Structure formats: C-alpha cells, structure tokens
Structure of Ornithine carbamoyltransferase:
Amino acid sequence: MNLQGRSFLTLKDFTEEEILYLIDLAASYKEKKKRGIQVDNLRGKNVALIFEKTSTRTRCSFEVAAHDLGMGTTYLDPSGSQIGKKESIKDTARVLGSMFEGIEYRGYGQEIVEELAKYAGVPVWNGLTNEYHPTQMLADMLTIREHFGKLKGLKLAYMGDARYNMGNSYMICCAKLGMHFVACAPEKYFPNQKLVGECEKYAAESGGSITLTENAMVGTKDADIICTDVWVSMGEPDEVWEERIHDLSPYKVTKEIMENAGSRSIFLHCLPSFHDLGTRIGKEIHEKFGLTDMEVTDEVFESEQSLVFEEAENRMHTIKAVMAATLGADR
Ligand code: CP
Ligand code: NVA
C-alpha cells in the first residue's frame, strides 16, 4: 500500500483496503510504543498544526505523534496567525507548503481544508471540519477492532445530531467498512440526502447498510456500538442550545439504551462530553436549563461498557499512522 503524498481530508477519498491499512499501521505503532521501540524515521521533517477551533486530543495527538516520529511541530492557534483574516487560504497554503512537509487543519467549512490541500503541494490532514472528522474515525475503528476482533458486520448506532461532523463520518466509515450504521435522531437531524446516497453506494459494495430512524429503541436494539456526540458543536451559536436540548433529549444515551443494545455492547464518544456539568460551560447549562447531564448519563460514561479513554488514546496512534503513511515513513 502506498499512500505517500496523499492528503487525508475525508474517508470518502479512501478505499476499504486503504482505511484498514491505516488501522493496521496504527496498531503496529501502538504495539511498538508500548514495547518502548522508537520509530523516528521522519527526523528532520516539520509539520504545521493549524487550529481555528480549540482542541485537547487532536492537538496533543498530532504533537506527540510528530515528535515520536522525529518531526518538529509549529502550532498556529485560533487567533495567532493571519489565516483567513489578512491572508487567503490559497496564499497560506503556498507559504506553509514551502516550509513544512505536512499541514494539519482544524476549522470550519470542508471547502477550506480542500483549498489548503489543493495549493499546499504537501499532504494536508483534516483535524475536524464542520462536515467531517476522519482521524477520529480511525481511532474509533481501532478501538472497536481491539474490543471485538473485527469490524465487518458490526452494528453501530449513533444517537443525536447526525447531520454534523461525527454523524456524517460514522456513516461514511461504516459504509466503507461493511458495518451497519444506524442514525437515531429526529428527522431534521438526519444526514443530508446526497451524502446518504453516496454512502448507500459504498455500503452496497462493502456489505454494510445505512438506516435512519426516529425510534431510539428500535435503532439501538442489539447494536454492538452505541455512540454519541455533543448536542451543540464548536462554532455553533448559543441560541441553538434550547432547541437542541428539546429535540435531542429523547436521544440521550442512558442505561436503558445500553441494556437495549445488550451487555456485550460498548459505548464510544469522541469527547469532550457533557456527562459532567461541573465544567464552566456545563455549570452555565445546568443553571440555565436545570440539566444534570446531556448526551450521555454519567452512569453510562463511567460504566465498564464505556471505552472512551481507550478511544482517546487511540487518536495518537492513528494520527501517527496517517502522518507516517502519507509522508512515506511506513515503507
Ligand atoms: N475528539 C476530539 O477531536 O477532541 P478535541 O476537540 O479535544 O481535539
Ligand atoms: N461535533 C463536535 C466534535 C468535537 C470533537 C464539534 O464539532 O465540536
């Protein structure tokens, strides 16, 4: 498999074999790291990390993975560069492409990361856009495979806003890998029809399926994986909170939902999560809406079935695989 020179913008651009290759490569890097074996054959190279939205996992994963591989990193924070304000994406791409061997971008529209990739001349990695979160998918799939020993044929039920980056990405990823994807949400939160159509084609080839339902108990019945995401994403206005709480409360991941899926099911969440309203924003939500949790109860989050911290660790190993493969360090 040769992915050298490729950008990683959405899983739509990758075949089932290529996605599985990246998961295998991540597993191999993880094993080496656990055994204390250093693989730093990208020494002398440098990567730029652009974050127009905040991050804990993605930023740390890119930095640790790059350093493990021997590379230097430059972090551009949401306010500390000219990007998109004084300087166009096209110019930024050509400047950074002349100094760095690869560029990570987290921000708003998918068209921005696509434009960056078009003009950079080096691999560009999507660290989250409004539409997609492809590196998160690799971490989730590695976590699922570590647990079940396989991916094909498993049923993954996603609860909540299925029109945004996480819902879209799970649908694409499951469709590519022959998994059964179910979105449980009110109809207005279903993924857009065009993307559903594309994913139905992938699923027809891979043996997977796509189901959209408003009925959470039907959708999560016997699911292997239950997952969710925050009800309001980064960059969305505060005004949407009330409507989201009203619309998505029936799709909260509770003990009843996990029991409906069955005792062998697992729970995943990309994090950060509002199971804990002790945070600054969490307290504001509690005071304003009287809630004690949001998309998942603390009970489920802290249960044996929850693999959220394994999933978070796997962000680093999978991001390492993406950088290594696209920079040609795997061969
Ligand atoms: N899951 C995820 O992308 O986390 P961060 O926003 O902390 O990077
Ligand atoms: N949907 C969330 C995912 C965070 C990792 C957001 O975009 O804020």
The mean pLDDT is 97. The pocket of norvaline (ligand 2) is lined by residues 128, 164-166, 229-230, 233-234, 270 (CB under 6 Å).
